[in-house]
Design brief:
- By secondary structure, this protein is α+β, with helices and mostly antiparallel strands.
- Among the domains are: 161 residues, no CATH class; 82 residues, no CATH class; 260 residues, no CATH class; 46 residues, no CATH class.
- Strand 14 and strand 15 form a beta hairpin.
- Helix 8 packs across helix 9 and helix 9 runs antiparallel to helix 10.
- The longest helix has 30 residues.
- The protein is extended and about 120 Å long.
Length: 868
C-alpha cells in the first residue's frame, strides 16, 4: 500500500492591508488580505495615558460586516468632539501594510505602521518586501496627555534609526531562517488533545485532499511543537499519516507557521506587549541587513540568484563602539549571508529546484576594544579582560555548532606579521583560543582555522589574492556542502555533488549543508566582503551544477554571470559597511583583482574620510539609537537618560549590573589560620560592647525595649549616633579606646584590640645586629661612590650638546643648493655616459685583477688534472 503524501504549506498572513480609523476614545485597526475578502479588527484604547490596551476579538469579518461596523462607529461618535475630522464621528488616519510594533518612552505609547513597501525578491511563490516608509502615531488622546520635557528628544532619537533603510519582511516566507531550515519537515509533533481549547486561537484551515482533487474533512493539527507551529481550527482528531489504511492515495496538507529566529528579529522589543495576545496574522517579524536578487537568463531560462544578509541584534552597534564579543558569545557585526539559487520555471518549494549556501561574518570572539578618544586613524587595540580558559570563544563556537553543525571553518584575514603589533595581536589571540578549544572536541569535529594575510599578499607585484581565495573557498565548500531540495540529476558529474544526503518525504533525497564558513578581518567589512564573494563565486558553480545548468563548477571572472554576482556582493558589502562603519566599502573586489582604475583611488580616499568622520562624530549617537530601538535601554523617569550614560557597557554586559555593594567584613585580615572555628580576637568591638552606659541596640525590638524610650539625656544622643556612624565605617574613635567610668564591662586596652606580632606570626621585630648594620653601611657607601660626581672638579652635572652639523637657513621662498664634491660628480658622469654609450672598458687596475684571477684558476685546473 502506498503512503499518503504529506505536504507542508507555510501559513500566509491574511492581514496585508491595514486602515487606521480614529475616534476620540479609540483607534480602530482594520486589516484585510489583498483581495479584501477577509477582515480582522483591533481596538486600541486612547484614554490610557501610560498603558497599552489592545483588544483583538479574533473574529474574521466579511466586507459587508466591516462596512456596517465602520458605519456604526461613525454614527455612534458623530456628535462628539475631539477627532481630526469635523464631518463625521470617525476619521481615517492612514493606510498601511503592516504593524512594526508599539513603543513607549516617558509618556504614552506610539504605534509604528508600514506605509510604503517595495518588492525586492521572490523565493518561489513568496515575496520579500523592503520597508520604504513608516508612520509613528501617538496613541493617547491629547486631552489626557501628560507631557515630559525629554519625550521629544527620545522620539527624535528613535526616528533616526530610519526604518526605511534596509529593513525587510514577508507575509509568508520566514526570512529569519535559512532556506534549508524552512524546507525541513517539522519534528516532535505534540498531539492536539494536549492543548484543548488552544486550537480556537488559530486561524488556518489545514485540508486533506484525495488524489482526484475532492475535499474531505479538515484535518486538525497541533499548534505548538519544536521549531514549527501548526495552526488548527477544528477539534477533530488528526489522522496518523503513517497509517497506510487511512492514508492510501491521499495528499495530506498541513498549514504551518515557523517560529522566528529571535537573533535576527529586530522588532522583538516593539512586539513584546502584543505578541502573546494578538492573532499571529497581525504580527510581522522585521529583519535588518540586505536582500538583493538578480536574474541569470540562460537561453531564455531564468535562474534567480538571491543574497539575504541577516544582521544579528545581539551585541549590535557601530564600528569602534562594538568590538569583540560579550560574555554570552555574541560577537559584534555578526551577519549571516545566504546565497540562494532557484529555477523560476517551477515556483513551488516542494516541486521546484532550490539551492542555498550559508556563510557567516563576525568579529574576533574576545574582549577587545579600541580607544577612540584620540584623533588617530587606527586606534590601538587593547584587550579589556583576560580570558585564560577561552570561555567567551567557547560560548560563541558552541552557538555555531548548535546552529550549523560541524565543521566550523574559520577564515581569518587579519595580518599576522607587523613591524609594530596591531592587528597581529588579534590573530595570536584567536589562534590560541581555537587550539585550546579543540582539546575538548572530537578530532572529526575540530574547529578548522585558516589564516590568510590578505593585505600583505596584495602588496606584491605578482599578487594573486583572488586565486588563493578561490583555492581556500573550494576546499572549504567541499567540506560543508550546499543545500539542494531535490536529488541530483543522473547525468550530473559526481565530483560536483556536494552536501550530506538526507532522505526526505517519499524517498526524495535532498542534500543539506552541515557546518559553516566563518570569515573575519578586523572590521569584517572590506577584506571580509571580498573573501565572501570568492566563496560565493565558488558556491555558485556548484549550485548551477545542481540545477542542471553546468557540467563543471567552474566560472570565469569576466563572464556576465560572475559580473552580476560581483555587483550583488558589492551592494551587499556597501550596505553592511554603511550600517556598521558609516561609509561604503573602501577596498573593493576590483582592488584585489588589480582591475580597479586609477581614478578609484580618489573614491577610496573619500570613503575613508567619510568613515573616519562617522566613527568620530556620529557613532555615539547612532549607538544610543540602536540601544533604544532594541530595548536594551528602556527610558524611566527615576533613572538618568540615555544621553547621560558615560558608556553602554552595562547594557550589553548585564553581569556588570548584578554587582552588589560590599558590606563590612568582620573577619580580621591579619590572620594565618583561616578556619572559621579558630578562636580569635576581633579588631573591633561590637556595638553593644563599645556603647557607654545605657547604650542602645541596633534593633531595640529584640530586647522588648521601645524604640522611642531613652534612659539618658538628650544631650548625649548626638555624640552616641556619631560614634555609631564612625564605627559602622570601620574607624575606631578615642571614645572607644577610653573606658567609661560607669561601665560595668571590662576595660579595653590597645593590646586587647591588636595582638602582638609573636601571637600572630610567631616572631618579634628586634634591633639588627652590629655586623648587619656595618654590612648595610658598606652597601650604601658603594652605591653612593658609584653615582657620585666630583663637585670640586668644576664639572657641571649636565650634558652639554655640541652641534656638529651646519644647516643652511633655507626658507619656503629660496634655498641654497647643496655642494656636490668632485668624486660624486665623477660617479654621476660615469653613470650618465654608461646609459648613453653602454658599458665602458674597465680600468687597468680591474683588468690586472681579472688576469690574475684567470691565471690562478687555470693553474688550479691543471694541478687537478695531474693528480687524476
Amino acid at each position: 500500500m502506498e503512503e499518503a503524501k504529506v505536504v507542508f504549506h507555510p501559513i500566509i498572513s491574511s492581514i496585508q492591508k491595514i486602515a487606521l480609523y480614529e475616534t476620540k476614545a479609540r483607534f480602530y485597526l482594520i486589516g484585510s488580505n489583498n483581495t479584501q475578502t477577509r477582515f480582522r479588527v483591533l481596538k486600541i484604547d486612547r484614554m490610557e495615558p501610560h498603558e497599552l490596551s489592545v483588544i483583538d476579538d479574533k473574529v474574521e469579518y466579511t466586507q459587508e460586516e466591516i462596512r456596517d461596523l465602520v458605519t456604526m462607529i461613525d454614527v455612534g461618535n458623530r456628535t462628539r468632539a475631539g477627532q481630526r475630522s469635523a464631518t463625521g464621528g470617525v476619521a481615517k488616519v492612514v493606510s498601511a501594510f503592516g504593524i512594526v510594533g508599539f513603543v513607549k518612552f516617558l509618556e504614552g505609547y506610539y504605534i509604528i505602521l508600514i506605509t510604503k513597501r517595495r518588492r525586492v525578491a521572490f523565493v518561489g511563490y513568496h515575496t520579500i518586501y523592503k520597508i520604504e516608509d513608516t508612520s509613528m502615531i501617538y496613541i493617547p488622546n491629547d486631552g489626557i496627555r501628560v507631557s515630559h520635557p525629554d519625550e521629544q528628544r527620545y522620539v527624535k532619537m528613535f526616528q533616526s534609526i530610519d526604518l526605511s533603510s534596509n529593513f525587510y519582511f514577508s507575509y509568508s516566507y520566514d526570512i529569519t531562517h535559512t532556506l534549508q531550515n524552512n524546507m525541513s519537515p517539522p519534528r516532535n509533533i505534540i498531539p492536539t488533545s494536549s492543548h484543548g481549547n488552544n486550537a480556537a486561537k488559530t486561524g488556518a484551515v489545514p485540508e486533506s485532499k484525495t488524489s482526484d482533487g475532492g475535499e474531505s474533512n479538515p484535518v486538525q493539527v497541533a499548534d505548538d511543537f519544536t521549531f514549527w507551529n501548526f495552526l488548527p481550527d477544528h477539534q477533530e482528531k488528526r489522522p496518523d499519516v503513517n497509517d497506510v489504511n487511512h492514508s492510501k492515495n491521499k495528499t495530506v496538507d498541513y498549514g504551518v507557521r515557523n517560529k522566528p529566529h529571535r537573533r535576527f528579529v529586530w522588532n522583538s522589543h516593539l512586539l513584546e506587549k502584543i505578541e502573546g495576545t494578538l492573532h499571529p496574522d497581525w504580527i510581522l517579524y522585521v529583519t535588518h541587513g540586505f536582500v538583493g536578487q538578480s536574474n541569470i537568463c540562460i537561453y531564455g531560462r531564468s535562474m534567480y540568484v538571491t543574497i539575504i544578509a541577516r544582521r544579528s541584534n545581539r551585541y549590535a552597534g557601530t564600528r569602534f563602539l562594538k568590538r569583540g564579543a560579550n560574555f554570552e558569545g555574541d560577537v559584534a557585526n555578526e551577519v549571516e549571508t545566504e546565497q540562494m539559487v532557484h529555477d523560476s520555471c517551477v515556483s513551488s518549494l516542494s516541486s521546484g529546484r532550490f539551492s542555498s549556501f550559508v556563510q557567516l561574518r563576525g568579529s574576533v570572539p574576545s574582549h577587545w576594544s579600541q580607544d577612540i578618544s584620540k584623533m588617530v586613524p587606527k586606534p590601538a587595540i587593547s584587550f579589556d579582560l583576560s580570558d585564560p580558559f577561552c570561555e567567551t570563544a567557547g560560548e560563541h563556537f558552541n552557538q555555531l555548532l548548535h546552529r550549523y553543525g560541524s565543521p566550523i571553518i574559520i577564515l581569518n584575514l587579519v595580518k599576522k606579521r607587523e613591524k609594530k603589533k596591531h592587528e597581529s595581536m588579534l590573530s595570536e589571540e584567536f589562534s590560541t583560543a581555537v587550539k585550546y578549544l579543540n582539546q575538548f572536541l572530537p578530532p572529526n569535529h575540530h574547529i578548522q582555522y585558516i589564516s590568510f594575510d590578505m593585505a600583505r599578499m596584495n602588496k606584491g607585484k605578482e599578487a594573486n589574492v583572488m586565486g588563493r581565495l578561490a583555492q581556500i573557498a573550494y576546499s572549504a565548500v567541499c567540506k560543508t556542502g550546499i543545500f539542494q531540495n531535490q536529488k541530483p540529476y543522473h547525468s550530473q558529474n559526481p565530483q560536483s555533488i556536494l552536501g550530506k544526503p538526507l532522505n526526505g518525504q517519499h524517498g526524495i533525497e535532498s542534500r543539506i549543508q552541515t557546518g559553516v564558513i566563518r570569515v573575519n578581518c578586523v572590521d569584517c567589512l572590506d577584506r571580509t566582503n571580498t573573501a565572501q564573494f570568492a566563496i560565493g563565486k565558488c558556491t555558485l558553480g556548484f549550485q548551477l551544477c545542481a540545477l542542471g545548468v553546468l557540467e563543471s563548477p567552474v566560472l570565469e571572472f569576466d563572464s556576465d554571470c560572475v559580473r552580476m554576482l560581483e555587483e550583488l556582493y558589492e551592494d551587499h558589502g556597501d550596505t553592511l559597511a554603511l550600517q556598521y562603519g558609516g561609509s561604503q566599502l573602501v577596498h573593493r573586489i576590483k582592488t584585489y583583482r588589480k582591475t580597479a582604475p586609477w581614478t578609484s583611488q580618489g573614491n577610496d580616499i573619500m570613503q575613508t574620510l567619510s568613515r573616519y568622520y562617522s566613527n568620530t562624530f556620529s557613532d555615539a549617537e547612532k549607538q544610543h539609537t540602536i540601544n533604544l530601538f532594541l530595548g536594551l535601554f528602556v527610558p524611566n523617569e527615576n533613572k538618568p537618560p540615555i544621553w547621560d550614560l558615560m558608556t553602554d557597557y552595562c547594557l550589553h554586559h548585564p553581569q556588570a549590573l548584578g554587582q552588589k555593594k560590599m558590606r563590612r567584613d568582620f573577619m580580621p585580615h591579619f590572620t594565618t589560620n583561616f578556619s572559621p572555628f579558630t578562636v580569635r580576637i576581633r579588631p573591633g568591638r561590637r556595638r553593644e560592647e563599645t556603647s557607654s552606659k545605657g547604650g542602645t541596640m541596633k534593633n531595640p525590638s529584640l530586647t522588648g525595649q521601645s524604640s522611642t524610650s531613652s534612659t539618658t539625656s538628650s544631650a548625649s544622643s548626638s555624640s552616641e549616633s556619631e560614634d555609631t556612624d564612625e564605627e559602622d565605617n570601620g574607624h575606631i574613635t578615642d571614645s572607644q579606646l577610653t573606658p567609661s567610668k560607669d561601665s560595668s564591662s571590662r576595660n579595653i586596652t590597645f593590646e586587647a584590640l591588636f595582638p602582638s606580632m609573636r601571637q600572630v606570626y610567631g616572631m618579634e621585630i628586634e634591633h639588627p645586629k652590629k655586623s648587619d648594620i656595618l654590612m648595610y653601611k658598606r652597601y650604601v657607601l658603594i652605591g653612593r661612590s658609584a653615582m657620585k660626581n666630583d663637585k670640586g672638579s668644576g664639572i657641571p652635572n649636565t650634558v652639554k650638546l655640541i652641534q656638529w652639523s651646519a644647516f643652511s637657513l633655507d626658507t619656503s621662498f629660496q634655498m641654497m643648493p647643496p655642494k656636490v664634491n668632485r668624486t660624486s660628480q665623477e660617479i654621476y658622469h660615469q653613470y650618465v655616459e654608461r646609459g648613453r654609450l653602454g658599458a665602458s672598458e674597465p680600468n687597468p687596475t680591474d683588468m690586472l685583477k681579472y688576469q690574475r684571477y684567470v691565471s690562478n684558476s687555470i693553474m688550479q685546473h691543471d694541478d687537478w688534472d695531474d693528480s687524476l
